[in-house]
Design goal:
Elements: H1 3-31, H2 38-54, H3 60-83, H4 91-113, E1 126-129, E2 136-137, E3 140-141, E4 146-149, H5 150-172, H6 174-184, H7 186-191, H8 196-221, H9 233-243, H10 248-268, H11 277-291
Antiparallel strand pairs: 1-4, 2-3
Helix pairs in contact: 1-5, 1-8, 1-9, 1-10, 2-3, 2-4, 2-8, 3-8, 5-6, 5-8, 6-8, 9-10, 9-11, 10-11
């Protein structure tokens, strides 16, 4: 495919990675842990949305809303059961707990949902732009014709709405301002009268809501399986680190860099080597961190 088409795929991939990366980095910045079970939150959200869309059945927008609510409920329940009791033990026990929880959830999902992939039944209307000029360099069509499906528009539009909502939450609401205060200095926030446990719970719920949405958007573009979230967790982690760990805005930027690199690199790699596109993204991640360890957004990475 042409480079423009790959760039569109990159924007779509970056969009759902960005939504997930915001939730991931909020947990890191405020709860002070790397949650490797977060990929399974996406998987659960995708399955909740699929069940709502097929078993009830309800329209896709309602299924997305159900997935978001379900994701928030799952996140706070798991947090209260596994992470809140060990808040004061330090980041390493919480990290190990998240790894174990992720393995347990993934196998439980596989046991209940099976190993086969499931698919959302969405509209396939396609808008084609055949008037785009073509410029060939060697065997690679750099421009070429490109297409945008309704699924692409849904993912990109949902991401834009999330970015606006998150910005408004963090800058215009008391809860969002308290989240930022806790991210800067939890002890000072507690002294100033902020209910830090309430804010932690709010972060878990928000991260779960975002995971539910991202899971459904991933499923719309690909499919739903027990490995849906696990297969993307390294990309989400890379986006958060690349942008600047703890920075939601940096996570958005990092996600689009990762998404575009993953997609565009496939245009230059032979078909037998497309699996190396992930490696290319991680090489860029390492290169950026060597030059600027704090990430693109300049947020200082905390030491574990």
């Amino acid at each position: 495919m042409g480079l423009l088409q790959e760039a569109i795929f990159g924007l779509v991939t970056g969009s759902y990675i960005a939504i997930a990366a915001i939730g991931f980095t909020l947990i890191y910045g405020i709860v002070n842990m790397i949650n490797f079970a977060y990929g399974e939150y996406l998987t659960l959200g995708a399955f909740i949305g699929l069940v709502a869309a097929t078993a009830l059945p309800v329209p896709l927008p309602v299924a997305v809303l159900v997935a978001m609510i379900g994701g928030g409920v799952v996140s706070i329940v798991l947090a209260r059961g596994f992470f809140t009791p060990i808040n004061d033990t330090g980041p390493v026990p919480m990290l190990l707990t998240s790894i174990g929880l992720g393995i347990a959830l993934r196998n439980a999902i596989r046991l209940v949902g099976g190993r086969s992939a499931r698919y959302f039944d969405t509209e396939t209307a396609t808008f084609r732009f055949d008037a785009v000029p073509s410029l060939s360099v060697g065997p690679i069509d750099l421009l070429g014709g490109f297409f945008v499906t309704s699924g692409h528009l849904i993912v990109i539009g949902a991401a834009a709405a999330v970015f606006v909502a998150i910005h408004g939450l963090l800058t215009r609401t008391d809860v969002g301002i308290a989240m930022r205060a806790m991210g800067d200095d939890e002890n000072l926030a507690r002294v100033r009268g902020i209910d830090t446990q309430l804010i932690r719970d709010s972060v878990w719920i928000l991260a779960g809501v975002l995971a539910g949405l991202a899971g459904v958007l991933m499923a719309i573009q690909t499919n739903v399986s027990a490995d849906t979230g696990f297969s993307h967790i390294l990309q989400i982690l890379s986006a958060a680190i690349l942008g600047g760990a703890g920075s939601p805005y940096g996570a958005i930027l990092g996600a689009y860099v990762i998404g575009l690199v993953l997609a565009v690199s496939t245009a230059f790699l032979p078909s037998s080597m497309t699996g190396l596109s992930s490696a290319v993204a991680f090489v860029i991640l390492i290169g950026v961190l060597l030059v600027k360890p704090s990430g693109i957004a300049g947020t200082e990475v905390r030491e574990a």
